Amino acid sequence: MSSAVFDIAVKTIGGEDKQLSEYGGKVLLIVNVASECGYTPQYAGLEKLNQKYQDAGLRILAFPCNDYGAQEPGSNAEIQQFCTRKYGVSFELFDKVHARGPQQHPLYATLTKATESKGEVSWNFEKFLISKQGEIVAHFKSSVSPDSPELIAAIERELAK
């Protein structure tokens, strides 16, 4: 089944091309991340979600972004090293993208134009939940932590479908 999200190509943090269609049949949590943000400790919660739900079909896709307060100034290699060393991140990291503005990545253009969206991404660590069919089912602002009941309930609901 095709959707606008699954039609998008991205680059891994290592520079390899990847089609989001490769995640068909998985529930995705797409997050714009930054290493120097007040929300950066959410990496730990995201990793806990990854550990708990990966076998059930959840994939967390983290997209570093320097659009908000210039809080992700590092190179891809520096970002990957930081995430692995400080938070033990084992979920997938991708190439740094723009979540807003004239150079907005096509992924974020699609995510923010969806009717389920709360509009533009306004800060780091906003989360988009994508169904197994590639449909955007929820958008959570930065203040919604990875362990929040509303996010966990939404993830479990999608995994159960």
Architecture overview:
- The protein is α/β, with parallel strands linked by helices and 161 residues long.
- 27% of the residues lie in helices and 19% in strands.
- The protein is built from 4 helices and 7 strands; from the N terminus they run E-E-E-H-E-H-E-H-E-E-H.
- The chain has helices at 42-53, 76-87, 106-113, 149-160; strands spanning 9-11, 17-19, 27-33, 58-64, 92-93, 127-130, 136-140.
- Strands 5-4-3-6-7 form a 5-stranded mixed β-sheet.
- Strand 6 and strand 7 form a beta hairpin.
- The model has no long low-confidence stretch (mean pLDDT 94).
- Keywords: Oxidoreductase, Peroxidase.
- Residues 1-160 form the Thioredoxin domain.
- The active site is at 37.
- It comes from Microseira wollei NIES-4236.
- This is Glutathione peroxidase.
Number of helices: 4
**Strand percentage:** 15-25%
Main-sheet strand order equals 5-4-3-6-7
Radius of gyration: 14 Å
Q: How would you sum up the major sheet?
A: 5 strands, mixed
- How many strand segments? 7
User: Would you identify the regions where 5 or more consecutive residues have pLDDT less than 50?
Assistant: none
Task: Using the alpha-carbon principal axes, give the shape.
Answer: globular
The run of helices and strands is: EEEHEHEHEEH
Helical fraction equals 25-40%
Overall mean pLDDT: 94
SS-based class: alpha/beta
> In angstroms, what separates the terminal alpha carbons?
15 Å
